[in-house]
Amino acid sequence: MEDNNSWVGGEVRQINDRVISVQLLVMLFLGINFLLILTFFKKKSFYIIARYILFAVTLLSDSLIILISDILFLLAYFNFTIQVWLCINISMVVLLYSTVTPVTLTAMTLERYVAICMPLRHAELCSQRIHVHCILIIHGLSSIPCIVVFSLFFASASLSLYKQHAICAMQMYILHRWQGHIRSTVQQFYFLIMVIIIVFCYVKIMKVAKTASGENKQSTWKGLRTVILHGFQLLLCLIQLWTPFLENYLFQINLSLFINVRFFNYVLFYLTPKCLSPLIYGLRDDNFFHALKNYAFFDLYKRNILQTFTNYPSYQWLRTPQPSSQHLCSRHPRLKLNLSPYTPPGPAAPQ
Predict the structure, then answer these.
(1) If we measure between CA atoms, which residue out of 205, 217, 278, 314 comes closest to residue 33?
(2) Whether 78 contacts 6, CB under 8 Å
(3) pLDDT of 139-150, one tens digit each?
(4) What pTM, to 2 d.p., does this model score?
């Protein structure tokens, strides 16, 4: 890897194995998410089911976050600076959709709780008309931490700061220590509520699982495993909130150790939770998995087969429109065809 380098700011910055591995992971996750999003939009029956709609919201949010965070990762690695006002706009999107994902996971957990513990009211509480309201509520709740963080920054920053150039990172919006404490308090409160909801749903579903029998018991235990995976995702997201405190402490002690720990946190606590959503609903859900095979793989295979056949001369008739009978009569006047509709003969006359 010694031959791969980049000229940034008058110095040569090596492109090491870490950068390559991160790009491979990002391309892998984005490719999987693209297939799942394509499958969702190709099958219209998913549009009326609450858990699939929330799953699509999670996929879109995760894909956007992975793409933007990877761009910021590369900019920070190569020491590329941008103006603060542009960084603010990018960071607003990052902070908003970083909160949308765990809030949506909590909503999906509540949907599983209603489906298992209150099956008679599931159709009413998760009807199609509520889907749009649910998405708006999720984005409204997720925007509160973003509003708090940037309101504190706008109140403390000077006007000249917006025209300066800096490496885009969330740490630049913490101008005073008390701002970091307020941001941490808001986020910890959010995740405390989410953890309480996850534990509540887990306990309730566990009680139903013990009393269920047959197919209901199997479905209930599958829903319980889904809730456990959601809880694991939220745990990784919660740890992600604690990593800035450790990174700031290591930055004052050892710069090399700070870089290693920051890369480790980015891969484990930032990218890993984003790849669990396809595993939970995209591959474990039977309906979605079969639709993924049919639409994402078989359609492409059939399209390639049809294109291969039509490229041969003996199969050109598949792409050439055939002349109609009216067209044949117009080109050949002597050819007279009886094109009138057929009428059966009437009853025979009596002898």
Answers:
(1) 278
(2) yes
(3) 999 999 899 989
(4) 0.73
